[in-house]
Amino acid sequence: MLHVKTPEEVLALIECEFHSLGAAEQVCLVDAMGRCLAEDIAATEYVPDFDRSTVDGYAVRARDTFGCSDAIPAILPLQREVLMGEGAEFELNAEECVAVPTGGAVPRGADSVVMIEYTEDYGDGTIGIAKAAAPGQNMIFRGDDVYPGKVILRKGSVLSAQDIGALAAIGRVQVPVVKKLTVGVISTGDELVPPEAAPGPGQVRDVNSPMLEAMLTAFGAKVINYGIVVDDEALLSSKMTQAAAECDAVLISGGSSVGVKDAACRIIESMGRVLLHGIAIKPGKPTILGKAGVKPLVGLPGHPVAAFFVTKLFVLPLLDRLMGKKRERYTVTAKIAESVSANHGRAQYHCCRLERKDGQLIAYPIRGKSGLITTLAGSSGYFCIDRDCEGLPQSAGIQVTVSTGD
Amino acid sequence: MLHVKTPEEVLALIECEFHSLGAAEQVCLVDAMGRCLAEDIAATEYVPDFDRSTVDGYAVRARDTFGCSDAIPAILPLQREVLMGEGAEFELNAEECVAVPTGGAVPRGADSVVMIEYTEDYGDGTIGIAKAAAPGQNMIFRGDDVYPGKVILRKGSVLSAQDIGALAAIGRVQVPVVKKLTVGVISTGDELVPPEAAPGPGQVRDVNSPMLEAMLTAFGAKVINYGIVVDDEALLSSKMTQAAAECDAVLISGGSSVGVKDAACRIIESMGRVLLHGIAIKPGKPTILGKAGVKPLVGLPGHPVAAFFVTKLFVLPLLDRLMGKKRERYTVTAKIAESVSANHGRAQYHCCRLERKDGQLIAYPIRGKSGLITTLAGSSGYFCIDRDCEGLPQSAGIQVTVSTGD
Q: Are residues A226 and A186 in contact, defined by beta-carbon separation less than 8 angstroms?
């Protein structure tokens, strides 16, 4: 019999037992959104590749404007105009100026741009500059943004829209990303019927496989849903073996009867090794984690609420680990609307609804008997009461993990 | 000339000028993940449809156990056993018990279940009960979770994995969701080349259209990317008209030269109405919002960083509005690592990187000249310095909006 482990011990075990699978593929730029970067990305060229103006105005040598003012403008002949999208492959003459648009190229020799607002076109081929320019003013210099060799994104990051923008800027239109994991989902239980079926006496619909499929798909995995398998050890074993052959990880949920709980454990043992049996959280205690080769096999509780928390808290970090994905999970601060008592000795997780009142977030714990799926529906997120804590008084500050796709 | 509006005024204008388009479609359960619910969802049946045990044990009439203890167990004949997934369409005899598994059906007449841990099977057809049961104990009653007519999810919610679970529980396998919006994206600028091209002198790669396409796709829109259009008013006008005919909303970014800025405004005016020209934020001031019929036409700044903020702050809420989507955007509390000065009179947005130190989140503002796309790359999120604020001292508490898919 294995010891029940604390959440911290489970996460440490995952770090220790599982490692990045390392498989990568190239995808095109827009498809890289939300994917995990498989290697550091360094620029191979300068961005911009030329000195650029950040305003509409006149490129000058700053020293030619020193001392000028509204009263005594510096009067500089207009050497020429640079158009948008055109190079400026010439040298600015001393004591002259060149008209440049925002984003336009600035000629050699110019070290600053005076905004058009501070100038006057006298119409005789000269421009009056009413404000002295400081060197570097209103310019982006070649390579200010990136230069060859500069690492702009790190391996393991989950690519955001702004990262896609940065990749576009450096011309990286094929992006090396970690391959999607294939995760197998199996539900077991003689009482289960598929969601589309009408349950007969003593039957309920299978909640876990569609819920897990949705969660894992949003996480970015490919899901093979093996559907419902009856509580028969030989059948379960053969389905688990098939899933382990076809997938990178297998989740089996249910098996709530005593005999079958042991069966899941025996099957995982026969396929490889059981790493833990039981986690000190509520709900979610009867969880099994094992591995067959490098592949995790997870026995999730049958209760949908328990299966939900175990997947959020341990399975997704485990899948992150397999992908080498670096990801922070942030929480928001809220005040709890009513007191909640806790169970000694186990970290206790509660779903809640968040509402903003007078600029403050208020968390309403969703109460209900364990096993009620509606304690999840419509919730904004969840919070945890530590195992050492006897409960939370009304208005206590809590950290809420907000529901997102995964 | 229209007044520059504050962010609050812009959001109020969006509320006032745009409304839900109302188009809905049915999708299957797992595909409903992340979609916006088009109507309230009420249950049409009881879940569970029978009284259920939450433990492995014996269903009893609680009063038959009153007064029992370890020393003096109540001895009840085992009437029969209910198997998992089988109905219990019979009545429990008085002063007898029925074996039930976790999740199994409990017969009529039973009002509680005693956990197997507190019982002993004497092997002679009787069971010893060592702990008195309270009525209702260890049971979920018919309809405890949902009953016909109970609204479990509200119109406008973005469906999470747990909501998919709740829909599965009530057998709602076809889900009415709001149709995806089709959003057209146009980049304009004579200096722009596609990301896959090598920029010539004075040219830069188009960052905005792939960045916006990624952001809008993650938001849940279909994107038609019209690519780059040169700064020519007639061409732009014809492309905008085509996009407005094909899409629910059109974003045009760029047009940074003075003449073209006016062109975008004139084109939007000619297609419908300009609602605002200029927002009091930095970066992002030169933004145009208009409408043609019920369709928004947005002129975004050409600077990628400005286009990013305007899209996050105003375009996505506008698209939420068109979908009737109710969504909270939460922020996390962090301490700023270094002081940041601010511009008077405009709300100022900064990207930052978050790091956890001693359990506290530290925000490192990403500095750089405006227009550098790498000030976005790898950032964890962003924060705002209010227009009335002169800057933030080191270690000030700030609210960071964390980067997510959309």
A: yes
Q: In tens digits, what is the pLDDT along chain B, a chain of 406 residues? A: 557 899 999 999 999 999 999 899 999 999 999 999 999 999 999 999 999 998 999 999 999 999 999 999 999 999 999 998 999 999 999 999 999 998 899 999 999 999 999 999 999 999 999 999 999 999 999 998 899 999 999 999 999 999 999 999 999 999 999 999 999 999 998 999 999 999 999 999 999 999 999 999 999 999 999 999 998 899 999 999 999 999 999 999 986 555 566 788 899 999 999 999 999 999 998 899 999 999 999 999 988 999 999 999 999 999 999 999 988 888 999 999 999 998 778 999 999 999 999 989 999 998 877 667 777 888 889 999 998 898 999 999 999 998 765 4
Query: Which of A48, A164, A369 lies nearest to residue B211, judging by beta carbons?
Result: A164
Given a contact cutoff of 8 angstroms between Cβ atoms, the answer to whether B342 and B385 are in contact is yes
Domain containing A84 equals: 52-140
| Structure tokens, B198 | 């090598």
Residues B125 and B92 in one domain: yes
Q: Are strands B41-42 and B151-153 parallel, antiparallel or unpaired?
A: antiparallel
- ipTM higher than 0.85? yes
Domains contained in chain A, number = 4
Residues of B in contact with A354 (CB under 8 A): 328, 330
Predicted TM-score (pTM) of this structure: 0.94
Q: Are residues A306 and A204 in the same domain?
A: yes
DSSP character at residue B304: H
Q: How many Å lie between the alpha carbon of A10 and the closest alpha carbon of chain B?
A: 20
Which residues lie closer than 8 Å to B273 by C-beta, 6 or more apart? B290, B291, B292
Put simply, the answer to whether B330 touches A361 (Cβ < 8 Å) is yes
Q: Do A308 and B379 touch (CB under 8 A)?
A: no
User: How far is it, in rounded angstroms, from Cα B178 to Cα B161?
Assistant: 17
Point out the domain boundary residue: B158, B178, B198: B178
Secondary structure E strands in A161-210? 174-178, 182-188, 192-193, 204-205
Name which of A54, A84, A161 is nearest B215 (Cβ-Cβ). A161
Contact flag B153-A378 (C-beta cutoff 8 Å): yes
Other C-beta atoms within 10 Å of A358: how many? 5
On whether both A277 and A173 belong to a single domain, the answer is no
- For residue A56, give the CATH number of its domain: 2.170.190.11
Instruction: For residue B36, give how far its alpha carbon lies from the nearest alpha carbon of chain A (Å).
Output: 12
d(CA A39, CA A176): 7
Q: Write the residue in A87, A196, A371 that is nearest to B202 by C-beta.
A: A87
Domain of residue B199, CATH code: 3.40.980.10
